[in-house]
Amino acid sequence: MTGFDSGSSEKASGTAVSRLSRLAKFPVGVSLSYGNEAFSYNNNPAQQAAIKTHFSQLTAGNIMKMSYLHPARDTYNFTQADDFLKFAKDNGKTLHAHTLIWHSDYQVPAFMKNYQGDKAAWLAMLKTHVQTIATHFSGKVASWDVVNEAINDGGGYRNSIFYQKTGADYIEQAFINARAIDKKADLYYNDYNIEADTAKLQTLTNMLDGFKARSVPISGVGFQMHIFMDYPSVSTISAAFKRAVDRNLKVKISELDIPINNPFSAQYKAGDIKRELTPALALAQKKRYCEVVKAYMDTVPAKLRGGVTVWGVSDPSSWLIADLFKNAHADWPLLFDGGYQQKPALRGVADGLSGKACTNT
């Protein structure tokens, strides 16, 4: 329950956005669920209308991850991804592919978990994985998240199964192997909290400098930007973007969402939970979205803007509801409400793209 009719509010105030993606010369994207997943776009005309109207690039939330595309050692399954790609192409959208390598336990194929072999064998197996998938999609996708979330909160490399078997070598080898097949797609390293965690950002910076020294073919950094209304500060976000900009790498806001509640805050832990999206909160969220996008526009030069992608279409579909808040209450992190009506947050993104003042009115 929103607490107010966001769609009617937008229309009445004259702040409705006609076509968000036309306000940018770079991709304005959204992640989508597919097929039998909850909130799939497939049989949802209202969701499809929002997608077709406002976004120029699509990302599959799940179906291009490892276990979907490569479920068994000698088995690859491209059926769902190809259908998703066709939907993007038929509607004039580019596709940002997510992701070639990710440590998540439920996304690492069982055969990899059970794989026996030394470091060289592991690197060879991962090379086959990356290059087989890259070959299938070469020339069809605009960009890849080549490696996802390989750095720890607090700095250092994540002790994933890939790190245990190969050290950090699997990361740069994934980029080398992807580029050997696809000469044109942008290749991103993608991670969360790199805009706020100083030690994590430093590990990333060191990795990027090492890549440069060894001529590893990376195009840019994906800043997921699962952030909050009150954290991190805009200046902190801008400074993180600048680390990539200073290295002449593209910056992509790759998974943006801004929930009203921050479950890590003292207020939340004390039981101060917002249970209704009041008009005042919706306008505060609008301002926050605007400030983040404006920071992107102000910090990242045009040639290095890889795009801005929001992680989901409507509030009820957000991963935050089930995964972060554990269904404890509703939250409203995205640009459309449950009826696919525009929220003030959409206007906030539009204002940030247009260089307008960020206000809570």
UniProtKB/TrEMBL annotation:
InterPro entries: GH (IPR017853), GH10 (IPR044846), GH10_dom (IPR001000). The keyword Signal applies. It is an enzyme of class 3 (hydrolase). It holds the Pfam family Glyco_hydro_10. Residues 29-352 form the GH10 domain. It comes from the Bacteria. Belongs to the glycosyl hydrolase 10 (cellulase F) family. This is Beta-xylanase. It comes from Massilia antarctica. The lineage of its organism: Bacteria, Pseudomonadati, Pseudomonadota, Betaproteobacteria, Burkholderiales.
